[in-house]
């Protein structure tokens, strides 16, 4: 008998499944922005969800998305520390809404994704949480387990780097 089977609660399972169905696409996008690879992002999200599921009865009443997002970032950091990073993955950005307009936004999305992937892992985590997940400085600091000042300084460094490598808009609002 699997130790997890004796604690199975149909209500908890249903709550967890509903959470994954509702928040999974957004969490997958965060995972993709952290890893830069669609397959690694799926693995990262599944690994994280497998880690949090046994604790779901404690997490679900609080702020489950924040907890899972923090676990996602920490799991990615542990993968990043131990994984060889000689290859640079690339691919399409999965859209959280499920639709992707390849003709209008692919150049900007690909440039932005490549620029974000080039950032050091700490700056990348700050950019993803602050600007893609729209977390406050305080929430980002809590997720990363650091001081708000660290989030601000890492954010400033990351934005300076991104501004230097991303195309500048030409006159008339078009990307150059």
Topology (SSEs and partners):
Elements: H1 10-35, H2 38-52, H3 56-59, H4 64-82, H5 102-117, H6 121-132, H7 137-144, H8 148-165
Helix pairs in contact: 1-2, 1-4, 2-4, 4-7, 6-8, 7-8
- Element order: H for helix, E for strand: HHHHHHHH
Residue share in β-strands: under 5%
State the low-pLDDT regions, or none.
1-6, 172-176
Number of helices: 8
Number of strands: 0
- Distance from N terminus to C terminus (CA atoms, Å) equals 61 Å
Q: Biggest β-sheet: count, sense, barrel? A: none
Round the Cα radius of gyration to an integer and report it: 18 Å
Mean pLDDT: 78
Helical residue percent band = 55-70%
> Judging from the principal axes of the Cα atoms, what is the shape?
globular
User: Helix/strand/pairing class, anyone?
Assistant: mainly alpha
